[in-house]
Amino acid sequence: MSFLYLILVPITLVLLTYMFLEGRMNRLIPLELKISGLPDPFDGKTIFFISDIHRRLISEQWLDSFEQKADYIVIGGDLTERGVSFSRVRENVKRLTERGPVFFVWGNHDWDAGPDQVARILEEFQVTILNNSTHVLEENNSFLNLSGVNDSTRHYDDLAKTLASRRLFAPTILLSHNPDIQKKLNRSMDIDYVISGHTHSGQINVFGYTLKEKAGVKRHGFGTLIISSGYGTTKLPLRLGAKPDALMLRLTKK
C-alpha cells in the first residue's frame, strides 16, 4: 500500500499541475470564413471571438502579441460567473474595448452572475449587446449582418426576432453562446456561419471522451458551425485534452 501511495501521489500532483497549466494557456486560432457574396469592403476584415472567460483575467501581453488587429471584437457569452468580482469583469471589458468595437451575446453564467450589473459595465464601455437582435455592420455603403441570440440554455433565445431585423441580401453571421441553437436552424434561414462557445470542448476529457460537444468547425445542412473551446474554466480551474482558445476570424470572398 505504501509503495502504491508513493507512486500515485506524485503522478496525481503532476497531472493536476499540468491540468492547471493547460487551463491557463493563451491560444489564438486563426480561421478563414469564406462567404458567398461578401461585399468588397468586408473582404479581409477580422473578428476576434472570445467566449467563456469566466474567472480569468485576459492577458494584455497576449492581446498585444496578435499580428493583426481585429476590426471587430465579439464576447461570445459567459463573460463572468457567480462569485467573480465585478472589478475583474470591468477590467476584462476595458481591455477588449481598448482594442476595437465590441459586441456581446449573453451566456448562461452571465445571468447567474447578475445581469443588471453586467449590462451596466457593458454600457459604460459602449459595448453593443446583441439581445435577440441584429447589428448591421456598414463599410463604404456595404453591409454585413451580425446577429446575436440570447442564451438558449435558459430558453431566452428568440431566433425569429433576431433574424427579422437583418438587412436583406447582406451576408449573416449568427452568434449564439450555446451551439445547441443548431437544432433550430435550417438552410432557408440563409445564415453563412454560426459562432458559439459554451462547451469548453469538454474541459476535462478522459481518454478523449466527453459528454460535451468538442470545439471545431462543423458542417451542417444549415451551414457551418464553429465552436470555440473558450478562454476560461468553470467550477474547477483545470482542463485536460481541451486547451482554451479564442478565434481570429478572417472574412474572405468565396
TrEMBL record:
Keywords carried by this UniProt record: Membrane, Transmembrane, Transmembrane helix
Keyword Transmembrane helix tagged: yes
Protein's UniProt name: Metallophosphoesterase
A GO molecular-function descriptor: UDP-2,3-diacylglucosamine hydrolase activity
Domain Calcineurin-like phosphoesterase residue range list: 46-201
Biological processes per GO annotation: lipid A biosynthetic process
Residue runs in coiled coils: none
Membrane-crossing segments per the record: 6-21
Originating species: Sporolactobacillus laevolacticus DSM 442
GO CC terms, sorted: membrane
